[in-house]
Amino acid sequence: MKITSINYWKEDMKLTRPYAVTYVMHDSVSNIFVKIDSNNGLYGLGAGSPSEYVTGEIMDENCQDRIPELREILVGKDVRCIAGIIDTLTARYANQPALLAALDMALHDLFCKNLGISLGKYLGSKVRRLPTSITIGLKDVRETVEEGLEYKQRDFKIIKLKIGESKELDIERCIKLREAVGNEMMIRVDANQGYSVDEFLDFIDKTRHCSLEFFEQPMTPDQVGEMMKLPGEIRELCAADENLHKTKDALSLVKMGRPFGIFNIKLMKCGGPSEAMLIANIAKTESIGLMWGCMDESIISISAALNTALACSSTQYLDLDGSLDLASDIVKGGFELNEGVLYPLLDQPGLGVELL
Ligand SMILES: [Mg+2]
């Protein structure tokens, strides 16, 4: 089952709901796409969201320029030897995790289609179902409440609230959001490195009655030593995002003595399902809970993340809302969303996506 050709291109996709993260407004998103064809008529699809800020890589200005080297690595290879091909790609694209993630998932899509099973069945579904959170960006109190009520009406069960801009405003938003949506919705928060130790402790204190589920990345990655000074029960409720990209980061967090009780794995940070499974194995060994996050991404990479997440027994939290705000995509399928729960399409081969 030989690879015969590879396509690699970029698409700009409009967002239905522009948002701000730490003062920067986003109203559209660029994703890269990969299509790998094989000599038995099957193809695999991958998508990636390179970002200098998150994945540390510059998006290829002209994707055509990279195709010759991708062709050289992939064309003629037998996709049944997927592990060896991914080893080669991992060494080559160590500093381009979103590109690597797109290639890794496209190979997995093709590999599983060749087997006639879904990626979820191939990796083994250990977790049956989980709700995803849906994100409210940095907004004022009124907009925060309005959006929260909208998500409640749309049957979402968990809100992820972006905070970290102004502590007092954050506290007010949490309190008003909790009052508005009632106690049956979960609220988790992501400070995106915005707090000092004292601000974080004060925030926790003043929102205690809001029953916040957990706290994502309260401080900057270089303040991980400060994290270690926090009480253990608080650290257990903190998720590492900017502090955790690849396996080596997971190992160094473990060696430090557990500054975070939760790891937020994103395929775009780590380089795809293969590396994600390595991080998940470390988390499992250390009894660290897993959260699976994303950026603004195509259904293709959300499906890859969902199938990988549900294959890991330490998975506790999903934050895979990245395709829900896209005004367009290049595929349909991938998963079903019902009452806030994401269901992978386990009876469809590969990632379960279909080109539009
Ligand atoms: Mg985050």
What are the main properties of this structure?
2 domains; TIM Barrel; 356 residues; binds magnesium ion; 8-stranded parallel sheet; Enolase-like, domain 1
Q: Can you walk through the features of this model?
A:
By secondary structure, the chain is an alpha/beta fold. It has 2 domains: 3-116, Enolase-like, N-terminal domain (Enolase-like, domain 1), CATH 3.30.390.10; 121-355, Enolase-like C-terminal domain (TIM Barrel, Alpha-Beta Barrel), CATH 3.20.20.120. It has 13 helices and 16 strands. Helix 2 (82-92) runs antiparallel to helix 3 and helix 5 packs parallel to helix 6 (167-181). It starts with a strand and ends with a strand. The mean pLDDT is 96. Bound molecules: magnesium ion. The site of magnesium ion has 5 residues, from loops. Residues 190, 192, 216-217, 241 line the site of magnesium ion.
Number of domains: 2
On the 0-100 scale, what is the average pLDDT? Answer: 96
Q: List low-pLDDT spans.
A: none
* Percentage of residues in strands: 25-35%
List the helices and strands and how they pair.
Elements: E1 3-21, E2 24-38, E3 43-48, H1 67-74, H2 82-92, H3 97-115, H4 119-123, E4 130-131, E5 133-136, H5 141-153, E6 158-162, H6 167-181, E7 186-190, H7 197-206, E8 215-216, H8 224-228, H9 232-235, E9 238-240, H10 247-256, E10 262-266, H11 267-270, H12 273-285, E11 289-293, H13 299-309, E12 315-318, E13 331-333, E14 335-338, E15 341-344, E16 353-355
Parallel strand pairs: 5-6, 6-7, 7-8, 8-9, 9-10, 10-11, 11-12
Antiparallel strand pairs: 1-2, 2-3, 4-15, 13-16, 14-15
Helix pairs in contact: 2-3, 5-6, 6-7
Bound molecules: magnesium ion.
